[in-house]
C-alpha cells in the first residue's frame, strides 16, 4: 500500500489512499487563522495573527516540518533562509523610506545693518539630504511629505512570484535508488505603503535646530505561500533540472519520491512558477492585511559647526522611537540612533553637500548600517531648483549584508513667499534585497521668522 503524505482533516493527519489517482488535487490556500485552528502551530510552533506572524509561519512552512516521517528523515526541522532574509527586510521597510530634510527651503540671514532678517541668495535646500547650515534662531519651519512605496523585487526576483529553496534533502526513489530532492516554497506577495509625514523644526539658537517628524502609514499586504518537493537531476548538457514530485510511503517505508508527469520541469529554483503547484495534495497558506497607523516618530537636533573657506560643516542626530506597530510593519520595534557629519558649500546658483553617518539599532545589531548621500542643487530659475542625490545604505553586520544604492532626482518650486513644494523619485541603482521600481515623493515646507 502506498500512502501519500498530505492533508485531510487538519495538518496533523496524513492521507491514506490506494494510488495517486485516488487523491483529488487542487491548488488551494488556507488562511493563517485556518492554518492555526487546524493544528499547524503544533508542527511549526506558535505564530501571531499578524503580518509578522505570517512571516514566521512561512519561514517554517516546509512540508518536512509538517510531517513527522519527513522530519525524522531530515534529522530535524527545515526552514527557508532566503525567505527569512526577506522577512527581516520587510519588518524594517518603514525604516527604509527617508524622512524629508526638514530644513527651510528659503533661507534667511540676519542683516546687522538693517537689523532684520533678509533672504539669503542660495539654491533651494535639498529635499532628503542636509546642508550644514541651520535654519537660524527663531525660524520655524513646518513641512509635510507623501511617499508611495510599492515593493516589486526581492534581489532579482519579482516579489509577486518568488521561489525559495530549503536546500537538498536525502530521498529514496521508487526503484530503491537514492538521490536528493529540493523543498521549494513559492511565495506571492504584494506589499505597498502610503506614508505621510508632518514635521516641525525650530531654530532655538543661531547654530542649533531641533525638530520632530511624525509619520502616518497605510499598509496594504497580501501574501500566499505553497510548498512542494522537486527531484533534482542532470540534463544531457550538464544543466540542473527540477521536476515536481510526490512523496509517499511504500509498504510502511518512508519516504519514496516519484516525479509528477502532469507538470513541467524547470531549469532552476528562480524559474519555478505556479504551474508546478497546480495539483499538490495539500494547501498553501495566505494572509491579507490593510492597516493604518502612526509610524516611528523621529526627533532631530542639528548643529552648525562653522565654515572653513567655502566649506560649511555641521552635525546632526536623528533618534527614532519605537512608536509604530512592528507586528503590522508600521514600525521597527526598536530605538535607532543616526548620527551624521555634514559638509556643504553654496553659491548663489549652485550648492553641493555630503552626508556621512550610520544607523545604530538598539535591539538588533544586524540592522546597523552605514549611510551616505552626495548631492547638488542648481537654481535653474529664480523660483525653480533642480536637485539630485546619490544615496546608499550599507549593512556591515550579519550573514546577509544588504547594500542598496539609489539615485534621487527632483525639483523644487518656490510657489509664493516662503511656501515651497518639491517632487522627487527614489530610483534603485541595484537589485539587492527588497526594492521598488521607484518611489515618488511630494514635499512641502513653509517657514516663518518671529
Structure commentary:
- The protein has 450 residues and is mainly beta.
- It has two domains: 2-90 and 155-189 and 223-288, no CATH class; 101-143 and 205-215 and 292-449, Beta Barrel (Porin).
- The chain has helices spanning 32-37, 41-44, 51-59, 68-73, 81-91; strands spanning 2-4, 29-31, 108-111, 116-119, 139-154, 157-158, 162-173, 178-205, 208-234, 240-250, 253-259, 284-294, 298-308, 311-320, 336-346, 350-361, 369-381, 384-395, 403-416, 419-428, 434-436, 439-449.
- The chain has a 20-stranded mixed sheet that branches.
- Helix 3 runs antiparallel to helix 5 (81-91).
- The radius of gyration is 27 Å and the shape is elongated.
CATH topology of the largest domain: Porin
CATH architecture of the largest domain: Beta Barrel
Share of helix among residues? under 10%
**Overall pLDDT score:** 84
Low-confidence regions: 1-26
Number of separate domains:
2
| CATH level-1 class of the largest domain | Mainly Beta
N-to-C SSE string, H for helix and E for strand: EEHHHHHEEEEEEEEEEEEEEEEEEEE
Strands, count? 22
Number of helices: 5
**Rg computed from alpha carbons, rounded to a whole number of angstroms:** 27 Å
Cα separation of the termini: 87 Å
Oligomer state equals single chain
Overall morphology: elongated
